[in-house]
Amino acid sequence: MKYTITVMSGKGGVGKSTVAVNLAVSLARKGLKVGLIDADINGPDDPKLLGVSDLKLYADEEGIIPAETRYGVRVVSMGFLIPTEDTPIIWRGSLMHKAIQQFLEDVNWKDTDVVVLDMPPGTGDVALSVAQLIPESNGVVIVVTPQDVALLDAKKAINFAKQLKLPVLGIIENMSGFVCPHCGNVTYIFKNGGGEKSAKEYNLPFLGKIPLIPEIAENGDNGIPAVVINDKIREIFDSITDQILKEAQIENIKQ
Ligand SMILES: Nc1ncnc2c1ncn2[C@@H]1O[C@H](COP(=O)(O)OP(=O)(O)OP(=O)(O)O)[C@@H](O)[C@H]1O
């Protein structure tokens, strides 16, 4: 693989997988060959978000073959390797480390321009494995929601990346405000502006805000990334993706 973009969050449930999947699809829509590693071993949601839960992974003499999706993104995930989707992975850290290592080293990522890595939430054992295994990271993107507890955890993720010498490309604020589909009024359910404030505090680029939109959850559950069918979300991710490519200095990757 040429470049990796690691999507991290300080805490669970802030929309990290949703951002990773939509970012991967946005990159593919820009003509890049994109891979996605679902490094969330205990909660491998990316196959479902991409509508490929029924696929299995195969291997040939060149390595494990990532699963193809209809959105131009090839993906590997523990979700493909468990017998049923409700099977829990009850593994110690060392086994999870091995699984991540295989996703990075034994998968045939030949001809892939960018690999997006969807990290497990937090700064624990598996996150540390991923951070230490990434061969040439082009940086980390931190997903936050605007309430104080989420921001506090996000700051730990920023410092985690800094301590491991991974460049932080910027902060994305998710679930930013709910736009009423009837009157258009915005309600800031989780407060407003926290992501931008944190970015300023840590002198990091603020990459953009993603509103709380019921269609994002609905489309995700149906295996359709929101950027494929929602114009507003597509625009937002287009801008976020362009900024990430700029910050990572990989705008000219195709040349
Ligand atoms: N902007 C949004 N608007 C509406 N729903 C959203 C938004 N972002 C994420 N969601 C929904 O919130 C839920 C959690 O999102 P997601 O699984 O991406 O979070 P996560 O941070 O990866 O969680 P985990 O910690 O379990 O890995 C999902 O149902 C998703 O569809």
Task: Tell me what portion of residues adopts beta-strand conformation.
Answer: 15-25%
Q: Please give the radius of gyration in angstroms.
A: 17 Å
Count the DSSP helices.
Answer: 9
CATH-level-4 superfamily name: P-loop containing nucleotide triphosphate hydrolases
What structural category arises from helix and sheet content?
A: alpha/beta
Give the distinct bound molecules.
adenosine-5'-triphosphate
CATH architecture: 3-Layer(aba) Sandwich
Binding site for ATP: 10-17
Keywords: ATP-binding, Hydrolase, Iron, Iron-sulfur, Metal-binding, Nucleotide-binding
Function: Binds and transfers iron-sulfur (Fe-S) clusters to target apoproteins. Can hydrolyze ATP.
Subunit structure: Homodimer.
